[in-house]
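name: query_chain
kind: protein
chains: 1
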Amino acid sequence: MESKYKMLIGGFLIAILFVVIGVFVLGFANETLDIIAGLFGTHESETWTSPFPDYGIPGLEDNPIASLALGIGITGLILVLTFLIGWLVTRRKQKTS
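structure:
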């Protein structure tokens, strides 16, 4: 296997490790800004409605497996988009050379 594919797979596995840590360890922690905002008596107001409010799938907010699947899926999507953009930039540079 080429070294670039080994690096790609290794990077993806490390990213998945961070997703797992985020879901199972940090996912249940209170957000510092929410705590401080509560001390000042403020509340949140949405300027844009996210497709995944509060970083969860609507109806499955408290399900860690659903959160893990969402995190892995989004991580994979970002990886694919990043490599697609890199491929397009490389291809454009090769055409202009």
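note: The chain has a mean pLDDT of 82.
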